[in-house]
Automatic annotation (TrEMBL):
<feature type="domain" description="D-isomer specific 2-hydroxyacid dehydrogenase NAD-binding">
    <location>
        <begin position="111"/>
        <end position="296"/>
    </location>
</feature>
<feature type="domain" description="D-isomer specific 2-hydroxyacid dehydrogenase catalytic">
    <location>
        <begin position="5"/>
        <end position="326"/>
    </location>
</feature>
<dbReference type="GO" id="GO:0047545">
    <property type="term" value="F:(S)-2-hydroxyglutarate dehydrogenase activity"/>
</dbReference>
<dbReference type="InterPro" id="IPR029752">
    <property type="entry name" value="D-isomer_DH_CS1"/>
</dbReference>
<dbReference type="InterPro" id="IPR006139">
    <property type="entry name" value="D-isomer_2_OHA_DH_cat_dom"/>
</dbReference>
<protein>
    <submittedName>
        <fullName>Lactate dehydrogenase</fullName>
    </submittedName>
</protein>
<comment type="similarity">
    <text>Belongs to the D-isomer specific 2-hydroxyacid dehydrogenase family.</text>
</comment>
<keyword id="KW-0560">Oxidoreductase</keyword>
<dbReference type="InterPro" id="IPR058205">
    <property type="entry name" value="D-LDH-like"/>
</dbReference>
<dbReference type="InterPro" id="IPR036291">
    <property type="entry name" value="NAD(P)-bd_dom_sf"/>
</dbReference>
<keyword id="KW-0520">NAD</keyword>
<dbReference type="Pfam" id="PF00389">
    <property type="entry name" value="2-Hacid_dh"/>
</dbReference>
<dbReference type="GO" id="GO:0008720">
    <property type="term" value="F:D-lactate dehydrogenase (NAD+) activity"/>
</dbReference>
<dbReference type="InterPro" id="IPR029753">
    <property type="entry name" value="D-isomer_DH_CS"/>
</dbReference>
<dbReference type="GO" id="GO:0004617">
    <property type="term" value="F:phosphoglycerate dehydrogenase activity"/>
</dbReference>
<dbReference type="GO" id="GO:0051287">
    <property type="term" value="F:NAD binding"/>
</dbReference>
<dbReference type="Pfam" id="PF02826">
    <property type="entry name" value="2-Hacid_dh_C"/>
</dbReference>
Protein backbone atom coordinates (compact mmCIF):
# COMPACT_ATOMS: atom_id res chain seq x y z
CA UNK A 1 0.00 0.00 0.00
CA UNK A 2 1.30 3.43 -0.98
CA UNK A 3 1.55 6.03 1.78
CA UNK A 4 1.25 9.81 1.44
CA UNK A 5 1.71 12.33 4.25
CA UNK A 6 -0.35 15.51 4.19
CA UNK A 7 1.36 18.22 6.26
CA UNK A 8 0.06 21.50 7.74
CA UNK A 9 -3.42 19.99 7.71
CA UNK A 10 -6.21 22.21 9.02
CA UNK A 11 -9.35 20.87 10.66
CA UNK A 12 -11.51 22.00 7.74
CA UNK A 13 -9.43 19.94 5.30
CA UNK A 14 -9.96 16.62 7.03
CA UNK A 15 -13.34 15.92 5.47
CA UNK A 16 -11.87 16.55 2.01
CA UNK A 17 -9.01 14.16 2.77
CA UNK A 18 -11.47 11.53 3.96
CA UNK A 19 -13.48 11.95 0.75
CA UNK A 20 -10.38 11.37 -1.37
CA UNK A 21 -9.31 8.38 0.76
CA UNK A 22 -12.69 6.72 0.31
CA UNK A 23 -12.15 6.82 -3.44
CA UNK A 24 -8.61 5.42 -3.07
CA UNK A 25 -8.78 2.59 -0.53
CA UNK A 26 -5.40 1.28 -1.71
CA UNK A 27 -3.61 4.46 -0.51
CA UNK A 28 -2.94 5.41 3.11
CA UNK A 29 -3.04 9.14 3.75
CA UNK A 30 -1.34 10.33 6.90
CA UNK A 31 -2.26 13.64 8.52
CA UNK A 32 0.16 15.97 10.29
CA UNK A 33 -0.49 19.52 11.47
CA UNK A 34 3.13 20.66 11.31
CA UNK A 35 5.07 22.25 8.46
CA UNK A 36 7.93 20.57 6.63
CA UNK A 37 11.20 21.60 8.28
CA UNK A 38 14.46 20.07 9.43
CA UNK A 39 12.91 19.04 12.74
CA UNK A 40 9.83 17.43 11.13
CA UNK A 41 11.20 15.81 7.98
CA UNK A 42 11.87 12.54 9.85
CA UNK A 43 8.09 12.07 10.07
CA UNK A 44 8.23 11.14 6.39
CA UNK A 45 10.15 7.94 7.05
CA UNK A 46 8.13 5.11 5.53
CA UNK A 47 6.05 7.41 3.34
CA UNK A 48 6.16 7.45 -0.45
CA UNK A 49 4.95 11.01 -1.00
CA UNK A 50 4.34 14.34 0.69
CA UNK A 51 1.92 17.27 0.27
CA UNK A 52 2.57 20.62 1.93
CA UNK A 53 0.91 24.01 2.31
CA UNK A 54 3.09 26.49 4.16
CA UNK A 55 4.43 30.02 4.10
CA UNK A 56 7.97 29.27 5.32
CA UNK A 57 10.69 28.04 2.98
CA UNK A 58 11.36 24.37 2.40
CA UNK A 59 15.03 23.57 3.03
CA UNK A 60 15.16 19.78 3.34
CA UNK A 61 15.61 18.56 -0.23
CA UNK A 62 18.60 16.30 0.45
CA UNK A 63 16.80 14.83 3.46
CA UNK A 64 13.74 14.04 1.33
CA UNK A 65 15.95 12.35 -1.24
CA UNK A 66 17.68 10.30 1.45
CA UNK A 67 14.28 9.16 2.72
CA UNK A 68 13.51 7.83 -0.76
CA UNK A 69 10.95 10.43 -1.80
CA UNK A 70 10.70 11.42 -5.44
CA UNK A 71 8.43 14.45 -5.23
CA UNK A 72 7.15 17.37 -3.21
CA UNK A 73 3.68 18.77 -3.87
CA UNK A 74 2.10 21.97 -2.61
CA UNK A 75 -1.68 22.18 -2.55
CA UNK A 76 -1.52 25.86 -3.50
CA UNK A 77 -1.11 27.76 -6.74
CA UNK A 78 1.98 29.61 -5.52
CA UNK A 79 5.14 27.57 -5.05
CA UNK A 80 7.70 30.22 -4.12
CA UNK A 81 8.41 28.43 -0.81
CA UNK A 82 9.99 25.65 -2.86
CA UNK A 83 13.40 26.04 -4.52
CA UNK A 84 12.49 24.18 -7.70
CA UNK A 85 16.06 23.99 -9.01
CA UNK A 86 17.33 22.53 -5.74
CA UNK A 87 14.44 20.09 -5.65
CA UNK A 88 15.25 18.90 -9.16
CA UNK A 89 18.93 18.52 -8.30
CA UNK A 90 17.85 16.13 -5.57
CA UNK A 91 15.65 14.12 -7.91
CA UNK A 92 12.39 15.58 -6.62
CA UNK A 93 9.53 16.44 -8.95
CA UNK A 94 7.54 19.49 -7.88
CA UNK A 95 3.82 20.03 -8.43
CA UNK A 96 1.32 22.72 -7.50
CA UNK A 97 -2.42 23.24 -7.89
CA UNK A 98 -2.63 26.03 -10.46
CA UNK A 99 -6.44 26.12 -10.68
CA UNK A 100 -8.09 24.82 -7.53
CA UNK A 101 -11.08 27.11 -8.14
CA UNK A 102 -10.67 30.23 -10.25
CA UNK A 103 -14.17 31.30 -9.22
CA UNK A 104 -13.28 31.38 -5.53
CA UNK A 105 -10.68 34.11 -5.99
CA UNK A 106 -12.54 35.87 -8.79
CA UNK A 107 -15.72 36.08 -6.72
CA UNK A 108 -13.78 37.63 -3.84
CA UNK A 109 -12.43 40.26 -6.25
CA UNK A 110 -16.01 41.02 -7.24
CA UNK A 111 -17.15 41.14 -3.61
CA UNK A 112 -14.30 43.48 -2.67
CA UNK A 113 -15.09 45.71 -5.62
CA UNK A 114 -18.77 45.94 -4.69
CA UNK A 115 -17.94 46.87 -1.10
CA UNK A 116 -15.58 49.62 -2.24
CA UNK A 117 -17.76 51.20 -4.93
CA UNK A 118 -20.78 51.25 -2.59
CA UNK A 119 -18.75 52.64 0.35
CA UNK A 120 -19.89 49.78 2.55
CA UNK A 121 -16.82 49.99 4.78
CA UNK A 122 -17.66 53.63 5.49
CA UNK A 123 -21.32 52.85 6.12
CA UNK A 124 -20.24 50.13 8.55
CA UNK A 125 -18.02 52.64 10.36
CA UNK A 126 -20.86 55.16 10.64
CA UNK A 127 -23.32 52.50 11.82
CA UNK A 128 -20.87 51.42 14.51
CA UNK A 129 -21.04 54.98 15.82
CA UNK A 130 -24.86 55.04 15.46
CA UNK A 131 -24.58 57.52 12.62
CA UNK A 132 -27.10 56.39 10.01
CA UNK A 133 -26.78 59.29 7.59
CA UNK A 134 -25.99 58.46 3.99
CA UNK A 135 -25.02 61.94 2.80
CA UNK A 136 -21.58 62.12 1.19
CA UNK A 137 -21.32 58.38 0.47
CA UNK A 138 -22.89 58.15 -2.97
CA UNK A 139 -22.01 54.83 -4.57
CA UNK A 140 -21.27 53.84 -8.15
CA UNK A 141 -23.07 51.29 -10.28
CA UNK A 142 -20.72 48.69 -11.64
CA UNK A 143 -22.05 48.84 -15.21
CA UNK A 144 -20.79 52.44 -15.41
CA UNK A 145 -17.20 51.45 -14.60
CA UNK A 146 -14.13 50.25 -16.45
CA UNK A 147 -12.51 47.28 -14.75
CA UNK A 148 -8.83 46.68 -15.44
CA UNK A 149 -7.62 43.11 -15.11
CA UNK A 150 -3.86 42.68 -14.78
CA UNK A 151 -3.11 39.02 -15.39
CA UNK A 152 -5.97 37.54 -17.43
CA UNK A 153 -5.17 33.89 -16.82
CA UNK A 154 -7.47 31.33 -15.23
CA UNK A 155 -8.46 33.54 -12.31
CA UNK A 156 -8.23 36.91 -14.03
CA UNK A 157 -10.18 35.58 -17.00
CA UNK A 158 -12.90 34.29 -14.69
CA UNK A 159 -13.03 37.65 -12.93
CA UNK A 160 -13.38 39.37 -16.31
CA UNK A 161 -16.37 37.18 -17.16
CA UNK A 162 -18.06 37.95 -13.83
CA UNK A 163 -17.56 41.70 -14.19
CA UNK A 164 -18.67 41.56 -17.82
CA UNK A 165 -21.87 39.75 -16.84
CA UNK A 166 -22.72 42.76 -14.66
CA UNK A 167 -22.28 45.15 -17.56
CA UNK A 168 -18.87 46.64 -16.78
CA UNK A 169 -16.37 47.49 -19.50
CA UNK A 170 -13.34 45.21 -19.16
CA UNK A 171 -9.80 45.98 -20.29
CA UNK A 172 -6.80 43.81 -19.50
CA UNK A 173 -3.05 43.51 -19.61
CA UNK A 174 -1.30 40.16 -19.95
CA UNK A 175 2.02 39.18 -21.49
CA UNK A 176 0.23 36.21 -23.11
CA UNK A 177 -3.19 37.39 -24.31
CA UNK A 178 -5.90 34.73 -24.44
CA UNK A 179 -7.90 35.26 -27.61
CA UNK A 180 -10.79 33.25 -26.17
CA UNK A 181 -11.47 36.19 -23.84
CA UNK A 182 -11.88 38.71 -26.66
CA UNK A 183 -15.66 38.59 -26.30
CA UNK A 184 -15.51 39.92 -22.74
CA UNK A 185 -12.43 42.16 -22.67
CA UNK A 186 -10.04 44.29 -24.69
CA UNK A 187 -6.29 43.89 -24.26
CA UNK A 188 -4.24 47.04 -23.80
CA UNK A 189 -0.80 48.03 -22.54
CA UNK A 190 -0.13 48.07 -18.80
CA UNK A 191 0.00 51.86 -18.75
CA UNK A 192 -3.29 52.15 -20.64
CA UNK A 193 -5.03 49.77 -18.25
CA UNK A 194 -3.73 51.70 -15.25
CA UNK A 195 -4.75 55.07 -16.70
CA UNK A 196 -8.23 54.13 -17.93
CA UNK A 197 -9.58 51.85 -15.20
CA UNK A 198 -11.88 52.71 -12.32
CA UNK A 199 -10.90 49.46 -10.60
CA UNK A 200 -7.63 47.56 -11.02
CA UNK A 201 -7.81 43.87 -10.09
CA UNK A 202 -4.49 42.02 -9.82
CA UNK A 203 -4.28 38.34 -10.77
CA UNK A 204 -0.66 37.61 -11.69
CA UNK A 205 1.71 34.88 -10.53
CA UNK A 206 4.51 35.89 -8.18
CA UNK A 207 7.87 35.69 -9.94
CA UNK A 208 10.89 37.89 -10.58
CA UNK A 209 9.04 39.86 -13.26
CA UNK A 210 6.00 40.62 -11.09
CA UNK A 211 7.66 41.57 -7.79
CA UNK A 212 6.97 45.27 -7.34
CA UNK A 213 4.88 45.32 -10.51
CA UNK A 214 2.68 48.00 -8.96
CA UNK A 215 4.92 50.69 -7.49
CA UNK A 216 4.86 54.46 -7.13
CA UNK A 217 5.11 55.08 -10.88
CA UNK A 218 2.25 52.71 -11.68
CA UNK A 219 0.06 54.05 -8.88
CA UNK A 220 0.66 57.59 -10.15
CA UNK A 221 -0.89 56.58 -13.48
CA UNK A 222 -4.16 55.53 -11.85
CA UNK A 223 -7.15 57.84 -11.45
CA UNK A 224 -7.41 59.42 -7.98
CA UNK A 225 -10.96 58.01 -7.94
CA UNK A 226 -9.82 54.45 -8.73
CA UNK A 227 -9.56 51.42 -6.46
CA UNK A 228 -6.85 48.74 -6.31
CA UNK A 229 -7.77 45.10 -5.63
CA UNK A 230 -4.98 42.61 -4.87
CA UNK A 231 -6.06 38.96 -4.83
CA UNK A 232 -2.73 37.47 -5.94
CA UNK A 233 0.44 37.93 -3.87
CA UNK A 234 1.62 40.69 -1.54
CA UNK A 235 5.02 41.46 -3.12
CA UNK A 236 3.34 42.30 -6.44
CA UNK A 237 2.49 45.65 -4.84
CA UNK A 238 4.99 48.03 -3.25
CA UNK A 239 3.15 48.45 0.06
CA UNK A 240 4.93 51.66 1.09
CA UNK A 241 4.07 53.22 -2.26
CA UNK A 242 0.45 52.13 -1.87
CA UNK A 243 0.21 53.60 1.63
CA UNK A 244 1.67 56.89 0.36
CA UNK A 245 -0.81 57.01 -2.53
CA UNK A 246 -3.72 56.40 -0.18
CA UNK A 247 -2.51 59.00 2.33
CA UNK A 248 -2.04 61.59 -0.40
CA UNK A 249 -5.47 60.82 -1.89
CA UNK A 250 -3.92 59.71 -5.16
CA UNK A 251 -6.11 56.61 -4.90
CA UNK A 252 -9.68 56.23 -3.62
CA UNK A 253 -9.13 52.96 -1.77
CA UNK A 254 -7.89 49.40 -1.84
CA UNK A 255 -8.92 45.86 -0.99
CA UNK A 256 -6.06 43.56 -0.09
CA UNK A 257 -6.36 39.82 0.41
CA UNK A 258 -2.60 39.47 0.55
CA UNK A 259 0.31 41.53 1.89
CA UNK A 260 4.08 41.33 1.96
CA UNK A 261 5.09 39.69 5.24
CA UNK A 262 1.64 38.20 5.78
CA UNK A 263 3.16 35.00 7.15
CA UNK A 264 3.75 36.97 10.35
CA UNK A 265 0.13 37.97 10.95
CA UNK A 266 -2.45 36.41 8.63
CA UNK A 267 -4.15 33.35 10.11
CA UNK A 268 -3.05 34.33 13.64
CA UNK A 269 -5.24 35.50 16.51
CA UNK A 270 -3.56 38.77 17.49
CA UNK A 271 -6.36 40.23 19.61
CA UNK A 272 -4.85 42.32 22.41
CA UNK A 273 -1.34 41.96 20.98
CA UNK A 274 1.03 44.36 19.28
CA UNK A 275 0.86 44.02 15.50
CA UNK A 276 4.21 42.89 14.03
CA UNK A 277 4.02 45.17 10.99
CA UNK A 278 3.98 48.96 10.78
CA UNK A 279 2.52 48.70 7.28
CA UNK A 280 -0.35 46.59 8.60
CA UNK A 281 -0.99 49.16 11.35
CA UNK A 282 -1.17 51.98 8.83
CA UNK A 283 -3.46 50.11 6.47
CA UNK A 284 -5.80 49.08 9.30
CA UNK A 285 -6.14 52.70 10.34
CA UNK A 286 -7.46 53.71 6.92
CA UNK A 287 -11.23 53.58 6.49
CA UNK A 288 -10.96 53.15 2.73
CA UNK A 289 -8.92 49.93 2.94
CA UNK A 290 -10.38 46.43 3.17
CA UNK A 291 -8.11 43.71 4.56
CA UNK A 292 -8.87 40.00 4.40
CA UNK A 293 -6.34 37.36 5.54
CA UNK A 294 -5.58 35.65 2.21
CA UNK A 295 -8.93 33.86 2.04
CA UNK A 296 -9.48 33.99 -1.73
CA UNK A 297 -8.92 30.24 -1.85
CA UNK A 298 -11.12 29.48 1.13
CA UNK A 299 -14.37 28.02 -0.21
CA UNK A 300 -15.93 24.55 -0.07
CA UNK A 301 -15.12 23.81 -3.70
CA UNK A 302 -11.58 25.17 -3.60
CA UNK A 303 -10.54 23.27 -0.45
CA UNK A 304 -11.77 19.96 -1.87
CA UNK A 305 -10.03 20.63 -5.19
CA UNK A 306 -6.75 21.55 -3.49
CA UNK A 307 -6.76 18.26 -1.63
CA UNK A 308 -7.92 16.18 -4.59
CA UNK A 309 -5.55 17.60 -7.19
CA UNK A 310 -2.48 17.54 -4.95
CA UNK A 311 -3.09 13.94 -3.85
CA UNK A 312 -3.83 12.87 -7.44
CA UNK A 313 -0.51 14.40 -8.50
CA UNK A 314 1.44 12.60 -5.77
CA UNK A 315 -0.21 9.29 -6.56
CA UNK A 316 0.61 9.69 -10.25
CA UNK A 317 4.29 10.42 -9.59
CA UNK A 318 4.87 7.66 -7.03
CA UNK A 319 3.11 5.30 -9.45
CA UNK A 320 5.70 6.31 -12.07
CA UNK A 321 3.18 8.24 -14.13
CA UNK A 322 3.25 11.88 -15.14
CA UNK A 323 1.34 14.69 -13.46
CA UNK A 324 0.04 17.51 -15.63
CA UNK A 325 1.06 19.96 -12.90
CA UNK A 326 4.80 19.29 -12.77
CA UNK A 327 6.82 22.49 -12.58
Amino acid sequence: MKKILMMSVREDEKEAIENWSERHPDVEVGIDEGELHADTVAKLKGFDGVVIQQRSLVEVYAELKNLGLKQISTRTAGYDVINVDLAHKNGLKVTNVPAYSPRSVAELALAHTMRLIRNLELFDERAEEQDFRWIGLKGKEIHTLTIGIIGAGRIGGTAAKLFNALGAKIIAYDIKPNLELNEVLTYKSLNEVLQESDVISLHVDLNETTKGLIGSEELALMKPTAFLINECRGPVVDTDALIAALKNKKLAGAALDTLTGEENFFNFDLRGKELPSEQLKELRAMNNVILTPHVGFYTNVAVQNMVDISLDDVLAIISEKRSDHEI
